[in-house]
């Protein structure tokens, strides 16, 4: 087992204040293979103080120089892609091809996008007799999840740095090694001391200390809606800005005229990707009654193409596996028809869950309302377009969705969906488009220019 020491604070690795550690488990083997320090309030305080001290200099750095440092960070991430991919596979369990293409590749694109954006972004404009200035919020506390351990760090840190903010990152305790590797890339990129700091620790200890710290001006959090509510309440009491990217129960709607096979395959692939551990997975698929059974049969065939341990990895932890299995059992108990997969483990070792497809799911069932965060997809019937819209919008979430159908009809339907991002006929992911949700899926947006504006204050000067 490899023991990793120290926290990345003020441009250097320094000993943790306490002696506690967090074990890092390989979810494919169930073996502990590393440990990191369990930081506490003292470590968070040191990191926030370093970020606060670095803020005046970094915020005054010209955008062109900030862009150069972001470009250097992009290059460092690119140089370490193989190591990033191997680390993500070890601590998250993602298959190597996915780790390299997505977990290691996407952060390079995102970091580079903000280096490019700074070349043209207007930090001030004239409005009548006023000059409107966009200024950095200050010190940002970034609390990141385990499902995309590097992408979610970069999606918060890169726009914050572009805006002129300084950052303290608290990564998920399940996947801390990727964040430590990110800190090494920060060093290699030559970012000034204190501009980016990384503190590993438990959410209810280090994360809470970061949320509560009076030296933090903004919290950017990605994770469950339940935790997001608590963070929002705490930040509201301190009148502290928040950006919350939370849960989802996204609907894929198959309209008449759609390519049914393509729609079903795309929906199932969405749920199986990253073992279903993605908040924008199309976990509810809505099909008109006269095409329903054909769609369910196609879904069972599609799910069979994702053998555990090959195209689909384990869930991140035993607790997450048990949670997903409990939802599968609840689906069966509430009367849904199991057409693929089920609660039985597909492999003797590892936190795997079999790709699971449910039919005869009704909108009021638990598996149609609550986020499962695993490779489980529910197929629901609808009678007409208005019925489909009612079902699609009928949850507390509104993160993402998809529509398949004749182009004009699909776009018209997508416009009426209560979701922050909707794919039409298999539209590809765009790392420059805003990502975020309606309703209890969150507050604010990530990526592209909209992600940058989350980290900016607006000031007007009247003449």
Short description:
This protein is of the alpha/beta class and 463 residues long.
Please provide a written account of the structure:
By secondary structure, the protein is α/β, with parallel strands linked by helices. It has 15 helices and 23 strands. It has helices at 41-59, 63-79, 81-92, 96-117, 151-163, 176-188, 203-212, 225-237, 260-272, 292-303, 318-333, 366-369, 385-392, 407-416, 448-453, and strands at 2-3, 7-9, 12-14, 21-26, 31-37, 124-127, 130-136, 139-143, 166-170, 196-198, 218-222, 241-245, 251-254, 284-288, 337-340, 356-359, 376-382, 397-398, 400-404, 421-424, 438-439, 442-443, 456-462. Helix 14 (407-416) links the parallel strand 19 and strand 20. Helix 2 runs antiparallel to helix 5 (151-163) and helix 9 crosses helix 10. The radius of gyration is 22 Å and the shape is globular. The mean pLDDT is 97. Keywords: Oxidoreductase. The active site is at 245. InterPro entries: Ald_DH/histidinol_DH, Ald_DH_C, Ald_DH_CS_GLU, Ald_DH_N, Aldehyde_DH_dom. Residues 13-460 form the Aldehyde dehydrogenase domain.
What is the strand tally? 23
So what's the overall shape? globular
- Helices, by number, come to 15
Query: Which quaternary structure do these chains form?
Result: single chain
- Cα-based radius of gyration, to the nearest Å: 22 Å
* N-to-C CA distance: 64 Å
Q: How much of the sequence is in beta strands?
A: 15-25%
Name the strands of the widest sheet in spatial order: 15-16-17-14-13-19-20
Query: Which regions contain 5 or more consecutive residues with pLDDT less than 50?
Result: none
The pLDDT mean sits at: 97
Q: Quickly give the structural class.
A: alpha/beta
Instruction: Outline the biggest β-sheet.
Output: 7 strands, mixed
State the share of residues found in helices, binned by percent: 40-55%
GO molecular function: oxidoreductase activity, acting on the aldehyde or oxo group of donors, NAD or NADP as acceptor
Pfam families: Aldedh
Family: Belongs to the aldehyde dehydrogenase family.
Organism: Streptomyces roseolilacinus
């Amino acid at each position: 087992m490899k023991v990793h020491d120290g926290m990345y604070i003020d441009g250097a690795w320094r000993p943790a204040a306490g002696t506690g550690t967090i074990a890092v488990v390989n979810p494919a083997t169930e073996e502990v293979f590393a440990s990191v320090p369990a930081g506490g309030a003292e470590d968070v305080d040191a990191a926030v103080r370093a970020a606060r001290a670095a803020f005046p200099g970094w915020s005054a750095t010209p955008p062109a120089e900030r862009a150069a440092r972001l470009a250097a960070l992009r290059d460092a991430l690119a140089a370490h892609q193989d190591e990033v991919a191997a680390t993500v596979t070890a601590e998250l369990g993602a298959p190597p091809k996915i780790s390299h293409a997505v977990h290691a590749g996407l952060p390079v694109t995102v970091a580079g996008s903000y280096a490019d954006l700074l070349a043209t972004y207007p930090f001030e404009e004239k409005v009548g007799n006023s000059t409107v200035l966009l200024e950095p919020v200050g010190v940002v506390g970034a609390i990141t999840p385990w499902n995309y351990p590097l992408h979610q760090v970069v999606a918060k840190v890169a726009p914050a740095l572009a805006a002129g903010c300084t950052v303290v990152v608290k990564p998920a305790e399940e996947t801390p090694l990727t964040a430590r590797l990110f800190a090494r890339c920060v060093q290699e990129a030559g970012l000034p001391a204190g501009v980016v700091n990384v503190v590993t620790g438990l959410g209810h200890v280090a994360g809470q200390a970061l949320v509560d710290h009076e030296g933090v001006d903004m919290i950017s959090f990605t994770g469950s809606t339940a935790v997001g509510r608590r963070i929002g309440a705490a930040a509201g009491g301190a009148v502290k800005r928040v950006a919350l990217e939370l849960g989802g129960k996204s609907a894929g709607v198959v309209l008449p005229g759609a390519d049914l096979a393509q729609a079903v395959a795309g929906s199932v692939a969405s749920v199986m990707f990253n073992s279903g551990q993605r908040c924008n997975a199309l976990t509810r698929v809505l099909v008109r009654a006269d095409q329903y059974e054909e769609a369910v049969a196609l879904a069972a065939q599609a799910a069979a193409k994702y053998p555990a341990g090959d195209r689909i990895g384990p869930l991140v932890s035993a607790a997450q596996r048990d949670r997903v299995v409990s939802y599968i059992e609840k689906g069966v108990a509430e009367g849904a028809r199991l057409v693929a997969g089920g609660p039985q483990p597909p492999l003797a070792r590892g936190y795997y869950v079999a790709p699971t497809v449910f039919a005869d799911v009704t909108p009021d069932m638990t598996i149609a309302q609550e986020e499962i965060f695993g490779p489980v997809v529910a197929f629901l019937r609808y009678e007409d377009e208005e019925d489909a819209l009612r079902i699609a919008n009928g949850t507390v979430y509104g993160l993402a969705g998809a529509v398949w159908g004749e182009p004009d009809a699909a776009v018209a339907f997508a416009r009426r969906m209560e979701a922050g991002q909707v794919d039409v006929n298999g539209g590809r992911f765009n790392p420059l488009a805003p990502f975020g949700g309606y309703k209890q899926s969150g507050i604010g947006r990530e990526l592209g220019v909209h992600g940058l504006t989350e980290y900016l204050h607006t000031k007007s000067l009247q003449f």
